[in-house]
Amino acid sequence: MLVSIPVRMTIPAIATAHTTHARVDERALIARVLAGDRVAGRELYDAHAPRVYRLVFRLAGDPDLAQEFTQETFIHAFAQLATFRGEAALSTWLYRVAMRVTSNGMRKVRRFHSREADLEHARPVAVEREEAEPDLRSRLASAIDALPEVYRVVVVMHDVEGYTHEEISATLGVPTGTSKSRLFHARAKLRAALADFRKE
User: Fold this and answer.
1) CATH number at residue 161
2) pTM score, two decimals?
3) What is the mean pLDDT of residues 100-113?
4) What sections of 37-118 are H helices per DSSP?
């Protein structure tokens, strides 16, 4: 089932629904989607696309890539929906699909750019990154982008998007302690990267 990214995405006001009730409704919605109900497919998409997009955008850093990866996430999700067993929330399962799609997509993007870049283009970029940024927010964004992926993902999910360690654990398939440890090391690396800015 193909879906398109809405031009204007809004978050449905369903946060007050009871967890058990929401899970029952979720299963009924999934059953309708699997039965070929396109309206149900759109409802499922509208309920989850905004937060998936925000997460993917934070990881990809580019709105066009974020739209592409979000759409690809839901294409994969709808194709694999019959395999969803309901052990975790559907949102957690979707975030897991989004993480996989984004990670694979960014590897392809990096490989493409590395093939396109020659030594003359690489040197100016390196010099530009060494120059002091007057804005802390810009420096912080650059420092986060420079983190190894295992650390960057946890920082983005926890500190930027507000996921709990339990949600991160379920999404990434790692123990909660691993999520906390990665966040600790990521923050240490960010402090080191911004040490000169703090002195200024």
Assistant:
1) 1.10.10.10
2) 0.66
3) 79
4) 38-60, 63-80, 90-116
